[in-house]
Fold this sequence. Notes:
Blueprint: H1 2-16, H2 25-37, H3 45-75, H4 81-96, H5 101-116, H6 120-130, H7 141-188, H8 200-209, H9 211-224, H10 229-242, H11 252-262, E1 266-268, E2 272-274, H12 283-318
Antiparallel strand pairs: 1-2
Amino acid sequence: MTMLVIAAALLIDVGLGEPPNRFHPVAWMGSAITWAKRFAPPRGNARQFLFGMLIVVLGATASAATGWAIQRLTASLATSALGWTAMLLLQAAALKCCFGIRSLAHAASLVGNNLDADRLPAARQQLAYHLVSRDVTQLTASEVSAATIESVAENTSDSVVGPLFFFLIGGLPAALAYRYVNTCDAMLGYRTPQLEWLGKFAARTDDVLNFIPARITAALMLLAHLPSQRATSQAWRTWRRDAQRTPSPNGGHPMSVAAGGLGVCLEKPGHYCLGGELRPPAAADIRAMIGLFHRTIVLTVLLAITASWLLEVWIARGTR
Length: 320
């Protein structure tokens, strides 16, 4: 059943993309976080930290409870072929809302297409709207390309591998709770005077949850380079050397593999430089990153379905 839910969720994503925000659970999560943030203490590190922890714990619990309810309610439908199909589609739709393959590739393509057409201001605008929260107003075309590649590489873990990993180990409750924590980190996890302490618990929790998915992503991304021995070797060297150079303990893993494999330097001035000896990226490298992203997704799905099948076989043998 798990294998079929994953396969159906991916087909929904590829075929339909993202639902409108008013019907999107992640958008609801974001609205809830924005609402809760209005009541945060204006000062006091400890009070802000505790309030931020409350936002994470209560929201993650509610998300997990929602996932549990969806699984229980839909399971009650499986008394006929039609009901079983409805259960599969409803669970797949819920899982699909935890990741965005088509939307991420489309967002990166918009940036690359604008760079190809020498529309740098439009490329910056698309980058800021879809992919990053940093100030993009002064970025060069190469820096816009680098930021896009970095975002796709990191989001391969956060928005695809992570949700599937937690779905495998805990079903919809774990996948939805993970997605909520990830959304909290995206909205609160910044080192600004207003969010330093309010978002600290969200940021640290996200670091813990993504520890394994980020490294799985990097390994799969490395395998996705295998058609080219040179790219694979360079990706491996850059991963070993540069993975820990980013402020995040996790983001540097897929980003450094992408940098080495694509043969480009990914630099955020004043923060990190991955593949420092390599050339600056260009718009064509965004297209190469999208291709790498898709190959990594194929490997991720194969791994997830294989792991699910092995788990179901093991459980079946244990119940004999």
